[in-house]
Amino acid sequence: MLDNLSAFWNSYSETLISIGYKGLLAIVILVASAIIAKAIRRSIHNANARLQKLDATLIPILSTAAGYAVYAIGGVFILDIFGVNTASLIALVGAAGLAIGLALKDTLSNIAAGIMLLILRPFRTGDFIEVSNTTGTVLEINLFTTILETVDGLYIASPNSILWGASIKNFTRNGKRRMDIIVGIAYSDSIDEGLAVLKKIALEETRILQNPAPQVMVASMAESAVNLQLRAWANNDDYWQTYWDLNKRVKESIEVAGLTIPFPQRSLHVITCNNQATEKEGQ
């Protein structure tokens, strides 16, 4: 038995040593890949916790992708150590990836759009937006769809590629919004008195921001009224309630000031024509 083992060792010692050496290197590379992948994932989480530059939804995706990338590089090194033609393997994987990409181009388009939305962040979770004739609050941004809830409680899942390719109106991002309140007074009323009423309301309403300062102006000369306009800014949280309250207050204050809010009017002139019919008798 010992003689057989000794003969086998003498015949294949170099091969066994080479395999053992390569196997040891492969183990070292796997351990190193695991350590590096874990360190990169931890670094991504820690860096974003300090800087807050990326959306929280994007962090798990980036950290997972970085970990897989490290393992893929380590796998290439291991295959190269054992003599596998990695160039041909990479070409094969690339061709397979191209075929899969063509077959799933719409899905990959949504993934790419989702990543861009998460990186550039034209909107965030909780923002109130309007896009492609849809208005609602953003509930979730994932790789494939963006989830919205409309003001009447509807659930809308919109593909990311549609959002990425459309103009996005974000009502929340700037923190404040301007409201335009228009009221009409009669042509016989004093414009200065009407503007004074609007200016007083703007100064007394505590929810209206003074920077930018509110403005009052003559908006237009309509058919039946002179339209006066109050432009004022309010914080997003106060916007709608302030807008509703101001409409009520403007109407009441205009009436208290003795001004008239006219109804649409038309002047109708009736012209009567008396036609005399001439009868002709036939002979």
UniProtKB/TrEMBL annotation:
Domain of life (superkingdom): Bacteria
GO molecular function: mechanosensitive monoatomic ion channel activity
Pfam families named among the record's database cross-references: MS_channel_1st, MS_channel_2nd, MS_channel_3rd
Keyword presence, Cell membrane: yes
Mechanosensitive ion channel MscS C-terminal domain mapped to chain residues: 181-259
Domain annotation Mechanosensitive ion channel MscS: ranges: 106-173
An example Gene Ontology CC term for this record: plasma membrane
Membrane association type: Multi-pass membrane protein
Listed Gene3D superfamilies: 1.10.287.1260, 2.30.30.60, 3.30.70.100
Principal subcellular localisation of the protein: membrane
Mechanosensitive ion channel transmembrane helices 2/3 domain residues: 68-105
Coiled coil segments of this chain: none
TM region positions: 20-37, 58-79, 85-104
KW Ion transport (keyword) present: yes
Localisation per UniProt entry: Cell inner membrane; Cell membrane
Keyword tags: Cell inner membrane, Cell membrane, Ion channel, Ion transport, Membrane, Transmembrane, Transmembrane helix, Transport
Subunit description: Homoheptamer.
Family classification: Belongs to the MscS (TC 1.A.23) family.
Function field: Mechanosensitive channel that participates in the regulation of osmotic pressure changes within the cell, opening in response to stretch forces in the membrane lipid bilayer, without the need for other proteins. Contributes to normal resistance to hypoosmotic shock. Forms an ion channel of 1.0 nanosiemens conductance with a slight preference for anions.
Protein name from the UniProt record: Small-conductance mechanosensitive channel
Annotated organism of origin: Marinobacter vinifirmus
